[in-house]
Prior knowledge:
The protein contains ten helices and 13 strands. By secondary structure, the protein is α/β, with parallel strands linked by helices. The chain folds into two domains: about 5-175, Peroxisomal Thiolase, Chain A, domain 1; about 180-305, Peroxisomal Thiolase, Chain A, domain 1 (3-Layer(aba) Sandwich). The chain has a five-stranded mixed beta sheet with strand order 1-9-6-4-5. A four-stranded mixed beta sheet has the order 10-13-12-11. A hairpin with a 2-residue loop joins strand 12 (about 290-295) and strand 13. It comes from Salinactinospora qingdaonensis. This is Beta-ketoacyl-[acyl-carrier-protein] synthase III N-terminal domain-containing protein.
Amino acid sequence: MSAPYDSISLGPFACAFGDLExxxxxxxxxxxxxxxxxADVEFATMGCGSFRTMSGPVETYVLDCVRRLLDxxxxxxxxxxxxxxxxxxACLEFLGRDFAVxxxxxxxxxxxxxxxxxxxxCCSSLAALRYACDLFADEDVSDVVVLTLxxxxxxxxxVRSFALFSDAVTGCVVSRGGSGPLRLxxxxxxxxxxxxxxxxxxxxxQQAAQGAFTKVFRDSGEELAGVTKVFPTNLYxxxxxxxxxxxxxxxxxxxxxxxxxxxxxxxxxDWVINLVDYHTTVGIRSGETYLAQASAPGFFAxxxxxxx
Length: 308
């Protein structure tokens, strides 16, 4: 990114998980569903012990996340200029046409312009982060909230190929001259057209992933070897490790195992959840580099972050 972005910070971050903690065995016919989606693969090796579901309307969890972000950021709701909702395609149909209006009104976001980013599945949140930074080309923009939300109403839809879906809302504040722990240096999203059609292969996935990595490191001037931690999508553990291998990420650089065990796959929000968990347990350090990474059928995305 160019010099004007140097003063833009990311943070605080917040996560609002579904309030019901459940076990995979709680899903009716779970073993059969898993085998139908991921044949000849033992679920026990996934690394997921529980997942979360929302017992109430998704707006409740979005508002909880927004209020915690604003409280920690120390800014009044009226100071937020934009809010960006990043979500997967499947969530759009049940959000409703007045979803953004309800959130803005309930959170008292009186000067806020809403935007929805989707159609890139679990990679939409990283596209939203880049879009948030681009909004600062307008000198009147000071604070932007980015929210990721992925919810699965039906239990039998939670069991997907190499993933167990969980419910969560995550968010961060992107601000000009803020005091957040990170800043965004560069981002990249690549498409795997064969993957969009369900015909992806090892080669097509590798090309999409490596192409995104080439862009993000070329634009930043950094190198993968210098990255302290990578926050990936929380898929089936061997798949996550495979995705790391094809891009040259060492498994010791990954931080995902503990959140995967507790929350499963939270769609768009996985990299945020992993980042928050790392920041809580270890701490983001000034000057160190971190990589947010997301993968989905047909897409691969990443964003390079630097501790402030």
